[in-house]
Write a structure and sequence with these properties.
- Belongs to the methyltransferase superfamily. Trimethylguanosine synthase family.
- It is a single chain.
- The chain folds into two domains: 89 residues, Rossmann fold, CATH 3.40.50.150; 239 residues, Rossmann fold, CATH 3.40.50.
- 31% of the residues lie in helices and 21% in strands.
- The protein contains 13 helices and 14 strands.
- The strands form three sheets. The protein has an eight-stranded mixed β-sheet, sandwiched between helices. A four-stranded mixed β-sheet has the order 1-3-2-4. A two-stranded antiparallel sheet has the order 5-6.
- Helix 7 packs parallel to helix 8.
- It is elongated, with a radius of gyration of 26 Å.
- It starts with 22 loop residues before the first helix and ends in a 6-residue tail after the last helix.
């Protein structure tokens, strides 16, 4: 039952006594007619009083369950004698799990709204009314400006687009930045193979979705975070092309600011922002440029295993020392080649079997890949494609602006 709470006035009190909603009287009479009792009570009820009242009425087991809706605490459920009794009195505390591994409210554009009192539970991926204190329209950025000079720089990636996504012609959308940022599909599949059997994997810099799509093939659930709403929209579209959208939870946000609100996962797999093709101009690329230290510091609190997709000229000696600072037991550096040309490096932190001793392994992996060229390839076709992507992102931007102006919600 749900005893009378006295209306909405209960929210004005920091703590409500059990006597205010007649818990003792309900238990006194209830235990005479039923061996088990379940009560729906206010979120701010003093449950310590309920435990003492239960003991007076010979309640053997007690369970308190906090109920949340969109990560805002809603109420509590009190279970008296509902648990299996092993002969001893015991108390259990739980929170409801909604099968989404983060505790952030999500708006229609996947933008997180942080609650004042975070609750370490799991929220459903539902559409909630936007928080109008956040100006989504101003914070949205879509790279829709296309110039001839940038097309010249990125046209080479367009010509090999089907190595980035095998299903590119089925509706894949990439903006200009994503063409040189996304990981080739053959490497994404190799990365995903290292995570077979894992339940929940997190990618804090998902971009247009290269890694998360392949991870969703082999894992039960994937959390995809990116600071750019445009990238999240591209990733959502691309996940639908590969029919794995239902296994991915998308969040727009800065991983470094919301990491402390995320629940633990099995593994973190990501390709941190490298800063574009400029990394090739350096003989040795420092891990400090891509915040490896900060990623490991936050990541190791969320996951026991971390896999990073890094530039081919990364100074990995620094990475080993950074890993030792965070008690990394095993380290593996894998140089990835495509058609015998160095493409990138994969760093595995704690993914190897631990035999009790710290150890480091170096390996090389080569993938043979044929490049499919289309006869109609031209810069004009590429330019028209980018304009199409820009149109899709601008339309999304317009819809979001209308939503924030109140067009979607009364």
């Amino acid at each position: 039952t749900s005893p009378p709470w006295g209306g909405s006035n209960y929210e004005n009190s920091q703590s409500i006594g059990a006597t205010n909603i007649l818990i003792e009287k309900i238990l006194e009479l209830g235990m005479k007619v039923a061996p088990k009792i379940l009560l729906h009570v206010p979120k701010n009820l003093n449950t310590n009083e309920c435990i003492l009242i239960g003991k007076r009425h010979r309640v053997r087991t007690f369970k308190e369950e906090i109920i949340t809706i969109n990560c805002d605490q809603n109420s509590k459920l009190l279970y008296f004698n509902k648990l299996k009794s092993d002969g001893n009195d015991h108390t259990n505390y739980t929170m409801v799990n909604f099968h989404r591994y983060f505790n952030i409210k999500i708006n229609d554009d996947c933008r997180p709204v942080i609650t004042k009192n975070p609750i370490n539970v799991v929220a459903e991926d539902e559409v909630v009314k936007p928080n109008k204190t956040v100006n989504s329209a101003k914070s949205f950025s879509s790279n829709t400006v296309v110039t001839l000079s940038t097309i010249d720089d990125t046209y080479k990636y367009w010509k090999i687009r089907r190595t980035l996504f095998d299903k590119f012609n089925d509706g894949i959308l990439l903006d200009e930045e994503s063409f040189y940022s996304v990981c080739p599909e053959v490497i994404c599949k190799h990365i995903a193979d290292q995570c077979i059997g894992m339940k929940v994997v997190l990618d804090p810099f998902c971009g247009a979705g290269g890694n998360i799509i392949q991870l969703a093939r082999v894992c039960d659930s994937v959390i995809a975070i990116d600071i750019d709403p445009a990238k999240i929209q591209l990733a959502k579209n691309n996940a639908k092309v590969y029919n794995v959208y239902h296994k991915i939870t998308f969040i727009v946000g800065d991983f470094f600011k919301i990491a402390h609100r995320l629940r633990p996962v099995d593994c973190i797999v990501t390709s941190p922002p490298w800063g574009g093709p400029i990394y090739k101009q350096q003989l040795l690329f420092s891990p400090k440029n891509i915040l490896v230290d900060k990623i490991l510091k936050l990541g190791i609190k969320l996951a026991p295993k971390i896999l990073l997709h890094m530039p081919k000229n990364l100074n990995t000696t620094e990475c080993i020392w950074i890993g030792k600072n965070y008690k990394i037991r095993t380290y593996k550096e894998e140089t990835i080649k495509i058609n015998y040309y160095r493409n990138c490096k994969l760093l595995y932190f704690n993914l190897l079997k631990d035999n009790g001793k710290k150890h480091t392994i170096y390996s090389i992996k080569n993938f043979k890949q044929s490049v499919h060229f289309d006869t109609f390839d031209s810069k004009k076709v590429y330019s028209n494609y980018l304009k199409k992507v820009g149109y899709v992102l601008d339309r999304f931007h317009k819809n979001q602006r209308e939503m924030w102006n109140g067009s979607y919600y009364a």
